[in-house]
Amino acid sequence: MLQQNKLVIGAAVALAVLVLAYFVAGGQDPSAPVDAASEDGQPALVTDKGALENDNPLGEIVLGNPKAPVTIVEYASLTCGHCGNFHRTTLPVLKEKYVDTGLVQFKFRPFPFDEVAMIGAMLAQCVAPKQRVAFLDILFARQNQWLSSPNPIDEFQGIAKQAGLSEADFVVCRKDEKIFNGIRNMQKQANEELGVSSTPTFFVNGQKLEGHHPVESFDEVILPLLPEDALN
Beta 61-63 vs 70-76: how paired, if at all? Predict the structure, then answer.
């Protein structure tokens, strides 16, 4: 057990160094707002959609019909309070109104701003594909609980176990450089190509929305993109 604890601590230290080095090198301030509005005050339309159209190389975390006329891509950090608020309050309404009716496909993309968020994002990619959405739902539902914990990683381990990830797999996942680099590269691409620098940031068929918006704000963007008889 002592040896295993040393491995876990070593993995955490190594990951913290990698995360810190990445953000120092990028020079990004995660709290810095980006002006994503067009001149008429409407959400800006992203013309270079490469980062949006490229699938998550680690396996997409997705809800809804792949043939839906509207796709929402969210970039979020698990330690972001606004992201947690969106997932607990707004997303369930959007899911019932648009996702469950086949009108919207929703994709979650990790954009972690710290070590804890990175570990959570890595674990979300390590659980079985069918468990990933549920795993994220639980992490956001219990966000206040594990954020206030003296050791959030212990909280993660308990949740990951419920999702079918063994203790050994939990340790291996946290040291997996392929998953770490996959998330880091997605984040880098989103920052450089899409101007993502704060969370949550959403793209609704390429239209950029930053911050936690109420359902009505999403309605304003989604409804004009739907076929005329979609809600009949």
Answer: unpaired
Rounded to whole angstroms, the maximal C-alpha distance in the chain is 63
Q: How many CB atoms lie within 10 A of CB 138?
A: 17
Q: Is residue 33 part of a domain?
A: no
Is 46 inside a domain boundary? no
pLDDT given for residue 8 in this prediction? 39
Q: What is the pLDDT of residues 74-121, one digit of tens each?
A: 999 999 999 999 999 999 999 999 999 999 999 999 999 999 999 999
User: CA-CA distances (angstroms) from residue 220 to 47, 77, 203, 214?
Assistant: 20, 25, 13, 10
> At CA 129, angle to CA 52 and CA 172, rounded to 5?
100
Of the candidates 224, 192, 194, 222, the residue with the CA atom closest to the CA atom of residue 36: 194
Q: What is the CATH number of the domain that holds 158?
A: 3.40.30.10
